[in-house]
Write a structure and sequence with these properties.
Helicase, Ruva Protein, domain 3; 3-stranded parallel β-sheet; mainly alpha; 20 helices; 464 residues; Glutamyl-tRNA Synthetase, domain 2; 4 domains; Rossmann fold; RNA-binding
RNA sequence: GGUCCCAUCGUCUAGUGGCCUAGGAUACUGGCCUCUCACGCCAGAGACACGGGUUCAAAUCCCGUUGGGACCA
């Protein structure tokens, strides 16, 4: 049997990391078994669904590299299919019209609550065999005796007592089908073999299984993956900060890092931490998914991102970094120059955004001088040494790290300086800050002209 | 409130009855490297929620308690 999985986001918000992980697991499972991965847009909620969200979700999936084999299907274009299925249930006596008004139901609900009972539909219209009527809802005739078992691939068998169920609504009074109904019809008609979804859906599963059976479809295998939680251990949401995949892109994360991180949230493979996409496809297995919820912890994502930045070739990083440099408003430069800049920054930056921020002095005509640093290190006593350094640099045809270091050491000795103090003086001169990549690499990247200029400007400002 | 799920270092996790004096990763602390900061390397601290069973032996199996979460309302 060919494996078919799906990812069914509803376009009422952005693609958040929880959804992305669900998509990833479905995608990996399908790829691992050479199956099919389907994208289905659940846009039955016409009021809250927005085209921009559809586009955002698609963009997010593409950025992560989770390509689908079929779709996107839109539920809003499948209404005929749902209608046909409802008619079939009606004709077979497995569903019925219900005239109970919301007010009546509300009253009964309150009564039940008052008696300490579970508020469920009491079946008033179940056997009345009512004809269609505008404004009436359609209910599914649930099996209310016995048990329904969900054989979950992650949790094992979960047994539900059917007496907990009631005749739930499959078509609202406005004629639209409900979520649990369309999901089942879609999954069944699309031939989904494995439903991998968040375990917040576990409680929906028994009623869905009953519907599969009523419709004459074999239920798929279910795998309910644990939730992703915020640091406060509640379901991850916007109020925990960045939750949307595209926001992580804006913050300078690499898709490889996010994928790796998401994969390891709830899934593991011994002690291994680093996985390429290809490796994940080979090694992914539902049996290695854990049962307990995981806290989304950005520190580890940052570490992974730093790792992937170090691993990515400079040429590729340059292309990725360019948009961030533009956003910072730096004057544009050659790709060759950016590549050299990156080489000095790639072990220091944890995100592309951070890298762009650390790179300001490479691109700006004049560095942004930190006044405290200037005050502390660009002192009169250091001036002669700086002067001599400038003189030596001017005498070089091109800047070379080894030669620069040699000159640096010579001058330190000659003026009996602490290497640290002289280095910091040069650093502040060139970068405006006390923290930067290695001095000699900074100088070679900047080039003789810029280095000379910055030295001259600073020397003018230091009082004798 | 009802139903369901879950429970190993702060966090992600390894662990499927003896290999556990509980391993790895991250974060943290200290050291080395060193022109600063990173990187890298070395070291340290840090967990089986609790209580009962089962067993020669339990982090691992069973029951209960507690705690957390989700769904429904």
């Amino acid at each position: 049997m060919k494996v078919i999985t799906r990812f069914p986001p509803s376009p009422t918000g952005h693609l958040h990391v929880g959804g992305a992980r669900t998509a990833l697991f479905n995608w990996l499972f399908a790829r691992h078994y050479h199956g099919k991965f389907i994208l289905r847009i659940e846009d039955t909620d016409r009021l809250r669904s927005k085209q921009e969200y559809v586009e955002g979700i698609i963009e997010g999936l593409k950025w992560l590299g989770l390509h689908w084999d079929e779709g996107p299907y839109y539920q809003s274009q499948r209404m005929e299919i749902y209608k046909r299925h409802i008619e079939r249930l009606l004709a077979e006596g497995k569903a019925y019209y219900c005239y109970c008004t919301p007010e009546e139901l509300e009253k009964k609900r309150k009564e039940a609550m008052a008696k300490g009972q579970k508020p469920r539909y009491d079946g008033t219209c179940r056997n009345r065999n009512l004809p269609p009527k505008p404004g009436a809802v359609i209910r599914f005739k649930s099996n209310l005796v016995g048990e329904t078992a969900v054989n979950d691939l992650i949790h094992g068998p979960i047994i539900f007592n059917n007496s907990e169920l009631d005749d739930w609504i499959i078509q609202r009074s406005d004629g639209t089908p409900t979520y649990n109904f369309v999901v089942v019809v879609d999954d069944a008609t699309m031939g989904i073999t494995h439903v991998i979804r968040g375990d917040d859906h576990i409680n929906n599963t028994p009623k869905q299984i009953q519907l599969y059976e009523a419709l004459g479809y074999a239920p798929p295998a279910f795998a309910h993956v644990p939730m992703i939680l915020g640091p406060d251990k509640t379901k991850l949401s916007k109020r925990h900060g960045a939750a949307s995949v595209l926001e992580y892109r804006e913050m300078g994360f690499l898709p490889e890092a996010l994928i790796n991180f998401l994969a390891r949230l709830g899934w593991s493979y011994g002690d291994q931490e680093i996985f390429s996409l290809q490796e994940l496809i080979e090694k992914f297995d539902i049996s290695r998914i854990g049962k307990s919820a995981a806290v989304f912890n950005q520190e580890k994502l940052l570490w992974l991102n730093a790792h992937y930045i170090k691993q990515t070739p400079n040429e590729k990083l340059a292309e990725l970094l360019k948009p961030f440099l533009e956003r910072k408003g730096y004057p544009s430069t050659s790709t060759d120059y950016i590549i050299k800049v990156i080489q000095t920054l790639k072990t220091r930056a944890k995100t592309l955004l951070e890298m762009a921020e650390m790179a300001d002095f490479y691109f700006l005509e004049e560095p942004i001088y930190d006044s405290k640093a200037v005050q502390k290190f660009l002192v009169p006593q250091i001036k002669p040494a700086l002067k001599e350094m400038l003189h030596t640099i001017k005498g070089m045809s091109a800047l070379d790290e080894a030669q620069l270091e040699q000159a640096f050491k010579r001058i330190v000795e000659k003026y009996a300086l602490k290497p640290r103090n002289f280095a910091q003086a040069i650093r502040v001169t060139l970068t405006g800050r006390t923290v930067s990549p290695g001095l000699f690499e900074v100088m070679t990247v900047l080039g003789k002209e810029k280095v000379t200029k910055r030295f001259e400007r600073i020397l003018e400002k230091i009082k004798e």
